[in-house]
Amino acid sequence: MELTAVDHRIPLSDGNSIPIIGYGTCPPHTMTPKGSCRAGVKFAIDVGYRHIDGAYIYRNEHEVGEAIREKIAEGRVKREDIFYCGKLWGTHFDPKRVLPSLQKTLQDLQLDYVDLYIMETPMAFKPGDEIFPRDENNNWLFHKTNLCATWEALEACKDAGLVKSLGVSDFNRRQLELILNKPGLKYKPVCNQVECHPYFTQRKLLEFCQQHDILIVTYTPFGVARGPGWVSTDFQPLLKDELLNSLGKKYKKTAAQVALRFNIQRGIAVIPKSFDPKMIKENFQIFDFSLTTEEMKTIETLNTDVRLVDQLMLSDHPEYPFHDEY
């Protein structure tokens, strides 16, 4: 299937489809000015993005919703053209909190449904409205995780027509198998959103997910991520890589565009993010060139199996996913 700027949807296992490139709305470590997310989403839709990746914890879903509704009102797109991914955060894993959390997202967006709703993490935190619950010593407040019970509550949301597809993020093989082998499973995860780029190719997890018809969607496709508390400090800057830049020179592209193209040719959906119009446009311009088989193999040799977004401050959580090999 040839992917183009106009038509780049790929199938999901439940019969729905997803655009292979999305526009990420996670704010940077330094919060962006009010309205910048709205402007970014509007510009992204004008450029050609149809997949918008958001989350409750980004605290900007109201701006995303405004942008989508404005573009629909202009006649630029129809609701069915837009693929919106929302996320269930770990403070809402109690089955009784799942539906209200989704309803809050729908209220902020002012939309009737989301196209994809994913568990943003396999780690549960103290239930409540505090996004990052900590004690008086600034230690995270963990909560016992029952991933299957949370998943059943998500299945009920799909049955109610509030979400079209269900997925997960940062689940390792064991956690995926827990859902896949759940007695009475109605809907399996269509995707697993994880870190994946030329320095961290996730080969084993990718193979496992492909065997089970689970799409890998990558956040951090450039090996660049939010605040220092979440990431490894020993990570080398991917976009300065000599090979990626030399290939970019060959194709008159940037190292970032080469990194994105590498993943979509592996069948991986990518979620670049930027509020800079120039970068938003550049990130989308990946459908007018292809890497050769040899170039793909050479890029794969850059893999170091070193994770950037290691979230070490959560490593004591019983469901911390990164202790496992994959």
TrEMBL record:
NADP-dependent oxidoreductase domain span: 33-303
Gene3D superfamilies named in the record: NADP-dependent oxidoreductase domain
Record keywords, A-Z: NADP, Oxidoreductase
Pfam family, one: Aldo_ket_red
Key word Calcium present: no
Feature type site, description Lowers pKa of active site Tyr: 87
Binding residues for substrate: 143
Top-rank lineage group of the source organism: Eukaryota
Family matches, as InterPro entries: AKR, Aldo/ket_reductase_CS, NAD(P)_OxRdtase_dom_sf, NADP_OxRdtase_dom
Active site feature: 58
Molecular function terms, GO-annotated: oxidoreductase activity
Family indicated by similarity: Belongs to the aldo/keto reductase family.
Name recorded for this polypeptide: NADP-dependent oxidoreductase domain-containing protein
